[in-house]
Write a structure and sequence with these properties.
about 90 residues, mainly beta, 6-stranded antiparallel beta sheet, about 15% helix, about 35% strand, globular
Amino acid sequence: MHMRRYAACVALLGSVSLAQAAPTCSNPVGEWQNQLGSTLRITAVQPSRQLSGTYISPSGTTGSAYPLIGWFANSVAGSTASSKLPTITFPD
């Protein structure tokens, strides 16, 4: 069950579209929604870069909000990676 939620969160972050204009890659607090209707609501980012919020899926557990905790890291300065997007991880 945890692995499915983790995979859903990763998929959500990989294909997010802004539900509202508030959250950005540098300030992810807000509501993110993917094309399948799953919602990731990030409510806080601590100085340690720990984030917290909820995940809501429109299928299977419709209406149930699952608490989540993860970490947010900006890309490394001087990186030669083609993507400069921040990394967000969620422990299992």
